[in-house]
Design goal:
The protein is an alpha/beta fold. It has helices at residues 2-15, 71-77, 79-85, 126-138, 151-162, 201-209, 231-234, 240-258, 276-281, 285-290; strands at 32-40, 43-51, 59-64, 87-92, 143-149, 169-173, 212-217, 265-269. The model is unreliable at 1-26 and 294-306 (pLDDT under 50).
Length: 306
């Protein structure tokens, strides 16, 4: 449809005597690695992309960085996923100046003064807007997958509760803290303190129905420099693996108690610590994204080059 509209607008321009370059149309995302600025609602973001040579336009993968805001590095380490799964990789940068933890990990649901922000202001809203911008640039109606690690995993977990993205799957890898499906813990760790329209049974049910994967490295079971040691976070577990499992079992228990569907998926990368590169390259990443068991790699023949 987008390709048709581009062709149509060009034909109309010619018919009325306008130069072709005067028509605003899709600007394709180049093959290989690239960087550009893109509008997402009211903000302009630096966006790092990787387009595989054989990309068909069917799939795109948003990759959300951690607390270091290293979107370029996340793009680089997601190249393998782009090649393996035929996906256009899109890694937006949410800089710390405009998007501190309140606006990034917690999506901007609350303003700096603690008041509720309207949904149009949420950082989460930038994701479907950016997806639309990418589709306009490529002229492809690509399906969307989203993966975030660490702070990006927190972003994905909480976004799944509040924002409709249209994604086929939302993958939260090693989030530092989690959003428990309870009204008794303060927002960030639960739904407590949010406006009634954001903290009720209907919202909790929608949260459990989201296409969310908790993708956990089993070796990410201890603290480090960036580990959240607040009282609320420590109540969730002493490591990120433990906190992800706590979220999983809370969700399963609530779904069973209420008779609600839960569309979540739990996938573990055995032995992997807090390392997004290893999580992205792990065979279980395919299960996290698509729900299929990765095929074993054929053994390298004796004498083959390394």
């Amino acid at each position: 449809m987008l390709s048709f509209l581009r062709t149509l607008s060009l034909a109309l321009a010619v018919a009325v005597g306008l130069p072709a370059q005067a028509v605003v149309g899709p600007v394709d995302v180049p093959e290989g690695k690239a960087e550009s600025k893109m509008r997402a609602g009211p903000v302009e973001l630096d966006v790092f992309t990787f387009r595989p040579k054989a990309w068909t336009g069917e799939r795109m993968l948003f990759v959300l960085h951690g607390v270091n805001r290293n979107a370029d590095e996340y793009r680089d380490h997601a190249v393998g996923m782009g090649e393996r799964f035929g996906m256009l990789v899109v890694a937006p940068k949410f800089d710390a100046e405009r998007f501190p933890s309140r606006a990034y990990q917690r999506g901007g649901l609350l303003r700096e003064d603690g008041s509720a922000a309207p949904p149009i202001e949420w950082t989460y809203a930038r994701i479907p807007e950016l997806a639309t911008a990418i589709r306009q640039r490529t002229g492809k109606d690509s399906k969307l997958w989203i993966i975030g690690h660490s702070a990006g995993g927190q972003f994905v977990v909480r976004m799944s509760a509040f924002q409709e993205t249209g994604a086929e799957r939302l993958v939260a890898a090693n989030p530092g803290s989690v959003l428990l499906p309870t009204l008794t813990m303060p927002f960030g760790y639960g739904f407590g303190g949010l406006p009634p329209q954001l903290a009720n049974d209907e919202r909790l049910r929608a949260y459990l129905a989201a296409p969310l994967t908790l993708y956990l490295g089993t070796g990410d079971d201890h603290d480090d420099e960036w580990f959240d040691k607040s009282r609320e976070a420590m109540a969730q577990g002493t490591g990120r693996h433990q906190r992800g499992l706590a979220l999983w079992w809370h969700a399963q228990a609530l779904a069973a108690q209420r008779g609600w569907p839960c569309h979540w998926r739990l996938v573990e990368a055995v032995g992997v610590e807090h390392d997004h590169e290893k999580m992205f390259a792990h065979a279980q990443c395919e299960m996290a994204l698509f729900g299929v068991v990765a095929k074993p790699t054929a053994p390298t023949p004796t004498g083959a080059g390394k």
